[in-house]
Amino acid sequence: MTRIGILLFDGVEELDAVGPWEMFGVWANQSSETELVTFAAEAGPIRASKGLTVHADRGFGDVGRLDVLVYPGGRGTRAHLEDESRLAWLRLQRDQVPIMASVCTGSLVFAAAGLLAGRPATTHWGSLEHLARLDPTIDVRRDERYVDDGDIVTSAGVSAGIDMALHLVVRLAGADRARQVRRTMQYDPEPPV
Hints:
It is a single chain. By secondary structure, this protein is α/β, with parallel strands linked by helices. The chain has one domain (about 1-185): Class I glutamine amidotransferase (GATase) domain (Rossmann fold), CATH 3.40.50.880. It is built from 7 helices and 11 strands. The chain has helices at about 15-30, 75-80, 85-95, 105-110, 130-135, 160-175, 175-185; strands at about 1-5, 35-40, 45, 55, 60, 70, 100-105, 120, 140, 145-150, 150-155. It has a 7-stranded mixed β-sheet, with helices on both faces. Helix 1 (about 15-30) packs across helix 7 (about 175-185). About 45% of the residues are buried.
């Protein structure tokens, strides 16, 4: 059983959390090999960046074992960059969770916690310079939708989290399962502009 936890917090960018949730949720619905949970510092309602209210099923204390932790981005991450207790919690998770994944500016929090030192990573195009300033040893990948560095996977802005999640389905369950998820979602981007 693969347990995936998507972190929620006030100011989370909706699609950063819900895009990966949808990909992983389709996988979970197609088989019994995945459990998907949302969590926050404390369980309960979370007001996202554009006003959507979502619910964190669990808190930090009772989320349990995770195989993948997804840290979305959004305006709410700004306060996390200097929140020493949150950064310490994140470093502890790094020691326990096999795959740490970020979407958009979630990678800035990873960098502030020291998780990206000397590693390749990406973030939203508008925050690439901020990522480089947080830790000059990061190999900032400016043109990639996601960067898989084994135990840490970062993705670019907002919709890139969907691609990253689908990539993780390939890694964790194989290309055939990922194709099933993609087909179910009818995910075949051809933007109109």
